[in-house]
Write a structure and sequence with these properties.
Blueprint lengths: L4 E2 L9 H7 L11 H16 L4 E5 L3 H10 L7 E6 L2 H12 L3 E6 L8 H10 L3 E7 L1 E2 L4 E2 L2 H8 L6 E5 L11 H4 L3 E5 L11 E5 L1 H7 L11 H8 L10 H17 L1 H21 L14 E5 L6 H10 L3 E2 L1 E2 L8 E5 L6 H17 L8 H10 L1
Parallel strand pairs: 1-12, 3-4, 3-5, 5-8, 8-9
Antiparallel strand pairs: 2-10, 6-7, 9-10, 11-14, 13-14
Amino acid sequence: MLKKYLLAPGPTPVPPEALAAMSMPMIHHRAPDFIPIFDAARTGLKHLYQTSNDVLILCSTGTGGMVAAVTNFFNRGDKVVVVNGGKFGERWIKICKAFGLEIIEINVDWGYTLNPARLEEVLKKESGVKGVFVQATETSTGVNHDIEAIAGIVKKHEEALLVVDAISSLVAHDLRTDAWGIDIMVGGSQKGLMLPPGLAFISVSEKAWKMAEQSKIEKFYFNLKVERKKQQDNQTNFTSAVTLIIGLNEAIKIIEKEGLDNVFKRHALLAHATREAVKALGMGLYAKEMPSNAVTAIEAPEGVDGQKIYKVLRERYGVTAAGGQDQAKGKIFRIAHLGYSDRFDIITAISAIEMTLKTLGAPVTLGKGVAVCEEILL
């Protein structure tokens, strides 16, 4: 028997309470029974987002939320700045290009974070910038960007919206939507919110809603003005993902019971223990600056293929992690400490990494990483 452990940066494990709630008999999305469920979900998301703004629930993956963030607030030919430091920065570029936006790209070396001074320099030089697109966590590299500092810079430019992909960062990091002035922030169900894939969340500031009035890009399914009106009546415009929204309420209850600040601290502790343990095993971190509390990208030992580490972890030891992408493929593997994760998930992960390295012939002292991990988590 091979027991399986899901330690990838999405999808992440789902708590039993949410699984049980989602197994209840189906109800109709237009029935009165669904109204309080949807209302509770909307209210709970505002708490997690730390905002008084609308947080809309979309029946899609997080990428659908990213598309909606482009199509509802911008026009073809609008000049926007995109921070590109990994695969998901590249995704912002692809979406913006698909809808005809003019892109000013700020390239950041993989494994590094954006120096906010570079953004300030670009915004001073370029006139008429309508938006700045950035990841909170660049999941492909395990790097976090300083959203507070970035928001402070964008605020000085009244015409520009700050658009943040927080799909991996939501609840793993303290992202203060209102206090920092984040105009549009996208989240997803399958990461820190501990649910199956299928829901995207998008918070929208009043400044962004004003820009939505000027947007002429064609939209149908992802029409946020229509969604806003419907969701204020606790309905989605099209068929609601009833089961997932029921599960969402359970996940929000779990987070609220733990306390949002404690959730941030737990993610920070698990991330710290993971990073120190892999360093004790002689491996480096791919994130050279501001490593994320959602996922740790680990450099494979010299002479060992990172893809083999990822595959042996899964096939021989039952631990599903993630490999590297594009230029990082074969060089790294990634372990998440996100959502429904506790200290023993991390101890299991480090133990499995030690055994995998031993299996692949890498020089490793069994128990060395686990010991460091346990000392930190004790």
